[in-house]
Amino acid sequence: MKNPVEIIIKKRSGGKLTEEEIRLMVYGYIADEIPEYQMSAFLMAIFFAGMDDEETYFLTKCYIESGVSLTFEANTVDKHSTGGVGDKVSIVLAPVVAACGGKIPMFSGRGLGHTGGTLDKLESIPGFTTDLDEKGFRRIIDDCGFSIASQSKQMVPADKRIYALRDVTGTVESFPLITASIMSKKIAEGAKNLVIDLKVGSGAFMKTLSDAKELGRRLKKVGETFGQKVRIVYTSMNNPIGAYIGNGLEIKECIEYLQGKSYPDLHVINKALAVQMLMLSDLANDEADADKMVERVIANGGALQCLSRFIELQGGNPKVTEDTNLLPQADVEVPIYAEDSGYVQEINSQAIGYAMVDLGAGRRELTDKLDYGTGAKVLVKIGDKVNQKDCIGTVYCRDEKSGLEVTKKIAEAIKVGKTKVEDEKLILDTE
Question: What proportion of the chain, given as a percentage, has pLDDT over 70?
């Protein structure tokens, strides 16, 4: 057996690792045969020296083979988002695609830092559970077309343990490590087709389109190597998505959207992703056909009905789709006022996301308990005209003091200038 130190030095020096060497490090670590400090050094070596496509494939393969994998007879499709502020798209996208005949096995994650987590939003629904066994997960997909659940301990355990180490060693933002982490889960869950919503901008991990395209190329390459069809949709994350930010508030917005209320940016992103999912699933002949299908299931209530059934099957109260007042609510509402007159030129989505953490709507650490009723509503987008002292949103909080502090942070995150800027383009590219 090779010495782990030799492998670390080889990668640190820019050498290409074999599948055997990668396997030794990954499996040695999860078997507690390689200490944490050596794995940390290995991850840092990858962070600085990188990995080529073949090495990334080997790493992904090791992650997948560390646990169980699911397979489905149906032509399954899933979506993955790289995360953003107010990103509740999965919660409307899955029922829309399911109402069109799609089968979506979706394992999702929790929020940390400035980005919210789909599981946290869903768990704001009274009684809702994301902890399912394989049998329950399959049964729900067979019944309503989709399920959104937490990853089981038996699925991709290597990634779960190594990701926790990456989070505390400053090695999260590594393209090969990101690629292996995302794709191992999406392949292990049994999705034959995958659409990736790759976020770009101030509120995303990828700040530039060129960086996002390199990550997109890697994700697509690994997926296709495993026989998965992959489409990448690059979307802007310079504005928070929709109007609401915060767990219960975002569920309220999702329900209102599926009831027919207009949330333009949420609709644009949801439709762009749904169209690709329907085409990959062979449920639509072309983009125009898919577009009509999406509009139809929202207009006729089919998508809302799917969401209601999904909530019921996962233990939640389906009546929330008729009465959003059943969702958790904060005690105090504090208005947000514009600090200047002019045009909104920039919105620091990341700063707004971190402000939500101060309310308990987000986490600093994975063990933090969430307050599902708190959050904010932001009424402006880049390009909008505002006047000083206009009400541009609301903070939902437990006490006025904390609310006033957060309104100040949000107002400061919205930069207003005299020059009119163009409305933000939401769909940057599709590959």
Answer: 98
Model pLDDT for residues 282-334, shown as the tens digit of each residue: 999 999 999 999 999 999 999 999 999 999 999 999 999 999 999 999 999 99
Among residues 105, 107, 99, the alpha carbon closest in space to that of 74 is found at: 105
Q: To 10 degrees, the CA torsion angle through 177, 182, 184, 185?
A: 140
The question of whether 181 is a catalytic residue gets the answer yes
Q: How many CB atoms lie within 10 A of CB 271?
A: 18
Q: Which of 11, 61, 79, 80 is catalytic?
A: 80
**For all residues of the chain together, what is the average pLDDT?**
94
Q: What's the N-to-C CA distance of the chain in angstroms?
A: 42
Strand partners, 80: 196
Tens of pLDDT, residue by residue over 357-405, are: 899 998 877 678 899 999 999 999 999 999 999 999 999 999 999 999 9
**Catalytic residue (one of 11, 88, 121, 166):** 166
Encoded amino acid at 247, one letter:
N
Task: Pick the catalytic residue from 78, 87, 120, 159.
Answer: 159
pTM of the model: 0.93
Q: Which of 181, 184, 236, 281 is catalytic?
A: 181
Catalytic residue status for 166: yes
Question: From the candidates 88, 114, 121, 185, which is the catalytic residue?
Answer: 185
The conformation of residue 112, written as its DSSP 8-state character, comes to B
| Residues recorded for the chain | 431
Average pLDDT over residues 227-256: 95
Q: How confident is the model at residue 21 (pLDDT cuts 50, 70, 90)?
A: very high
